[in-house]
C-alpha cells in the first residue's frame, strides 16, 4: 500500500465533496483536531492502567470521536451524514460533572502541570481551544455540523477537569496561579 498520492504536491488537498488549498480554514480546523488526537494518544502512554483504566477507556472513545469530528469538518454540507452527535456531548458533560466531584475544591486558576500526563492533557485542552477558534472561523464562511463546534467546546472543559483528576489520583496538588482572584465557586467559574 502506498501512502503518498502526489495529488497534493501543488498545495491542494481533497476534502469530502471537493478540493481546497492546504491552508484553507477548513484544513486548519480538522488539522487542529488531529493535533488534539495526537496529544491524547501521548497522554494515554503516561497513564498507569491500574489507576486510570476508566480514563484510558474514555480517552480511546474520545479519540474515535475526534476522528468523527475531523471527518465532519472535512465534509462539504450534504455530501454525507454528520457523525458528531448530542449524545457525545452528554457523555462529556457527565464525565466533567463526575471529575469535578472527584477533584479537590478549586477557587483560583491553576497552572498547567503537576504530573506529566496532566501537563499533556492541558496541552490537548489548549490545542482544543485553538481548534474551536478555527471552527468558529470556518462556520462564518461555510455550513458545518454545529454539534461538532459544541462538542469541541465541551471537550476542552473535559480536559481541564481530567487534568485535575489525573493529578489528584497520583497525590499531586495543582499549583494555583498566585495572582489569581477567586474565580471558582463549588468547582464552577463565577459569572460576572
Describe the protein.
The protein is mainly α and 192 residues long. It has a single domain, classed as Cobalamin adenosyltransferase-like (Hypothetical Protein Ta1238, Chain: A, Up-down Bundle), CATH 1.20.1200.10. Helix content is 59%, strand content 8%. The protein is built from five helices and six strands; from the N terminus they run ββαααβααβββ. The chain has helices at 25-45, 49-73, 86-102, 116-141, 146-169; strands at residues 12-15, 18-21, 110-111, 175-176, 184-185, 188-189. Strands 1-2 form a two-stranded antiparallel sheet. The chain has a two-stranded antiparallel sheet with strand order 3-4. It has a two-stranded antiparallel sheet with strand order 5-6. β5 and β6 (188-189) form a beta hairpin. The chain is elongated. The termini are far apart. The relative contact order is 0.16. The mean pLDDT is 92.
Keywords:
192 residues, mainly alpha, Hypothetical Protein Ta1238, Chain: A, two-stranded antiparallel sheet, 5 helices, 6 strands, elongated, ATP-binding, ATP binding, CblAdoTrfase-like, CblAdoTrfase-like_sf
Short description, anyone?
This protein has five helices and six strands. It is mainly alpha-helical and 192 residues long. It has a single domain (23-189), classed as Hypothetical Protein Ta1238, Chain: A, CATH 1.20.1200.
Stretches where pLDDT is under 50 for at least 5 consecutive residues are none
Average per-residue pLDDT, rounded, comes to 92
Q: Work out the strand percent.
A: 5-15%
Kindly report the name of the CATH homologous superfamily: Cobalamin adenosyltransferase-like
Fold-level CATH name: Hypothetical Protein Ta1238, Chain: A
Q: Whole-Å distance between the termini? A: 56 Å
Number of helices: 5
Q: Which CATH first-tier class would you pick?
A: Mainly Alpha
Give the helix level as a range of percent. 55-70%
Query: From N to C, what is the helix and strand string?
Result: EEHHHEHHEEE
As laid out across the biggest beta sheet, the strand order is 1-2
What gyration radius follows from the Cα positions, in whole Å?
A: 18 Å
Number of strands: 6
Domain Cobalamin adenosyltransferase-like: 3-165
Organism: Bacillus mesophilus
Pathway: Cofactor biosynthesis; adenosylcobalamin biosynthesis; adenosylcobalamin from cob(II)yrinate a,c-diamide: step 2/7
EC number: 2.5.1.17
Amino acid at each position: 500500500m502506498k501512502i503518498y498520492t502526489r495529488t497534493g504536491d501543488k498545495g491542494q488537498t481533497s476534502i469530502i465533496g471537493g478540493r481546497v488549498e492546504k491552508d484553507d480554514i477548513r484544513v486548519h480546523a480538522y488539522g487542529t483536531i488531529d493535533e488534539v488526537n495526537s496529544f491524547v494518544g501521548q497522554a494515554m502512554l503516561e497513564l498507569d492502567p491500574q489507576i486510570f483504566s476508566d480514563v484510558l477507556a474514555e480517552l480511546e472513545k474520545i479519540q474515535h470521536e475526534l476522528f468523527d469530528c475531523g471527518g465532519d469538518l472535512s465534509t462539504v454540507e450534504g455530501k454525507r451524514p454528520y457523525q458528531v452527535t448530542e449524545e457525545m456531548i452528554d457523555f462529556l458533560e457527565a464525565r466533567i460533572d463526575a471529575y469535578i466531584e472527584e477533584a479537590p475544591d478549586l477557587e483560583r486558576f491553576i497552572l498547567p502541570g503537576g504530573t506529566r500526563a496532566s501537563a499533556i492533557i492541558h496541552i490537548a485542552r489548549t490545542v482544543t481551544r485553538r481548534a474551536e477558534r478555527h471552527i468558529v472561523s470556518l462556520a462564518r464562511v461555510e455550513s458545518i455540523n454545529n454539534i461538532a463546534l459544541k462538542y469541541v467546546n465541551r471537550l476542552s472543559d473535559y480536559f481541564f477537569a481530567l487534568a485535575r483528576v489525573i493529578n489528584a489520583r497520583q497525590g499531586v496538588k495543582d499549583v494555583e496561579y498566585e495572582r489569581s482572584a477567586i474565580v471558582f465557586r463549588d468547582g464552577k467559574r463565577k459569572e460576572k
